Amino acid sequence: MRVKNKKTIAFLTLAVSVLLGYWLWLSLRPVEVVAVHDNGNHSYVLVRSFPLTDKGKINWWLKNKDMLKAKYDIPKPSSSGYFTIIFWDFGDGYKEEGKYDRLCFDDMKTKVNCIEKDAVFSIDKSRNFGVTFTVYDGDNYRLGQNSDIIKVESN
């Protein structure tokens, strides 16, 4: 009976180690900004390997917002200071519009100018709410006056 328990414990330890290693590998991959498309004060950023957690996404934005401004000139606020940036998972790349509900970019003069609608994160700045973060598979947050991140309670 003891041998069976040792084998079970060894198997479970190995399985947990493999899963933790895979999760660690996923969370440590660098984010790849594939392309940026603009539509007025809205910017669409196509990414690969975006962080998995809400905290990881927000921290990535806070760490990289200056780089995005310098390299891609985003955000591009309206005259009143408002802007929206949506990060989309680039997935399998650009596709033709097809019969599915895809997001297409008019600034590309080709038929292969659409992506699957898989938003992973967005940042909005408005007069009433300030800077807010939307995590599409999680919760909403806002940037507090002291640069603290505050979870927005949903009703």
Which features does this protein show?
155 residues; single chain; three-stranded antiparallel beta sheet; seven-stranded mixed beta sheet; 10 strands; globular; 2 domains; alpha+beta
Structure summary:
With 155 residues, the chain is α+β, with helices and mostly antiparallel strands. It is built from two helices and ten strands; from the N terminus they run αββαββββββββ.
Please explain how this structure is put together.
With 155 residues, this protein is α+β, with helices and mostly antiparallel strands. It folds into two domains: 1-29; 31-152, no CATH class. It has two helices and ten strands; from the N terminus they run αββαββββββββ. The strands form two sheets. Strands 1-2-3-7-8-9-10 form a seven-stranded mixed β-sheet, covered by helices on one side. A hairpin with a 5-residue loop joins strand 9 (140-143) and strand 10. It starts with a helix and ends with a strand.
Total strands: 10
Structural class based on helices, strands and sheet pairing: alpha+beta
Oligomeric state as shown:
single chain
Strand content: 25-35%
> How many H/I helical runs?
2
List the helices and strands and how they pair.
Blueprint: H1 2-28, E1 32-39, E2 42-48, H2 54-72, E3 83-89, E4 95-96, E5 102-104, E6 112-116, E7 119-126, E8 130-135, E9 140-143, E10 149-152
Parallel strand pairs: 2-3
Antiparallel strand pairs: 1-2, 3-7, 4-6, 5-6, 7-8, 8-9, 9-10
